Amino acid sequence: MAGFALRMKSKSGQTVIKGLTPQSTVAELKGKLSSLTNIREKALHVLSGFPPKPLDLKQSDITLEAIGITSGDTLIIEERDNPGEEKQTDKESTAPQMERRIHIQESQLERPGILMRKVVPADNSCLFTSIGFVLGGKVDPTCAPFMRQIIAETVAGDSGTYSEAILGQPNHSYCEWILKPDSWGGAIELAVLSQFYGIEIAVVDTLNAIINRFGEDQRYAQRVFLVFDGIHYDPLYLEPFEGGSVQTIFLTTDERILQEAEQLALEAKSSRQYTDVHRFSLKCLVCQEMLVGQVEAQQHAKATGHKTFGETAS
């Protein structure tokens, strides 16, 4: 079939897979993927669709059409020693950033409920843990290294877009920095992850009572919400009044939930549920020096090389 092509994302980058048809077998697909990624066929873990879900590749003779793969689909490739066994023995083990168990169903649309904040650890990776929660339905800090790797590879692969002027440091230095577990994420990281996952990320800024929408210009079909208080990110979810599964992914056409998020931002600002980045108290966790505000922390980091800080009571 002319024109049949698939997109593939893996740790080594993105590429287009050609030479297959809807009647190609799973065995042929696995052979292609193994050749392109240098991952053994038995260790291939393949996700597709949105939200991404694992593909069952156990039946080697079944066709791509039969397992629901169509031209234009994006396949996300991971390497796992025993992907089949892992799925059987621990259904919760799939990394939350790659698979969601909570799906938007017709019965969930326009459900009455309340927008709630899920508190995640303040461990310098709160942004990544929060995104992992809205995509995977659980708090799992182990998703952070994977997301940091995505960001580093994306930035390194596009030095034109991600120039020193944008990053505030040379491209290669930024890539080394973001891979460190004590580096905080922000606007650049949100933009990269929004593009990678193909979803709008709306950040409720309680300091300024506004919502910053990453990926808004891409017209994505779905949206997730985070809340930011000046130094810390948490995910938001809808708790339905009538019980049942919480909802963390919403249609971008759902103006009702966007208005609720806007109201939340106003209420949080009026009740001072934010951290003033210019006045909050910090302690260097390396030398224990007490600091005040973001500027002092940045100056201290530049002078000493210390980059691990913790907030303290004012």
From TrEMBL:
Main location per the UniProt record: cytoplasm
GO biological process terms on file: endoplasmic reticulum unfolded protein response; ERAD pathway; protein deubiquitination
Function of the molecule: Hydrolase that can remove conjugated ubiquitin from proteins and may therefore play an important regulatory role at the level of protein turnover by preventing degradation.
Catalytic activity: Thiol-dependent hydrolysis of ester, thioester, amide, peptide and isopeptide bonds formed by the C-terminal Gly of ubiquitin (a 76-residue protein attached to proteins as an intracellular targeting signal)
Protein name, UniProt field: Ubiquitin thioesterase OTU
Species the sequence originates in: Gryllus longicercus
Cellular component terms (Gene Ontology): cytosol; nucleus
Transmembrane segments: none
Cellular compartment(s): Cytoplasm
EC number: 3.4.19.12
Pfam families found in the cross-reference section: OTU (PF02338), OTU1_UBXL (PF21403), zf-C2H2_OTU1_C (PF24560)
UniProt keyword terms in alphabetical order: Cytoplasm, Hydrolase, Metal-binding, Protease, Thiol protease, Ubl conjugation pathway, Zinc, Zinc-finger
Domain of life: Eukaryota
One term of GO molecular function: zinc ion binding
OTU domain span: 115-239
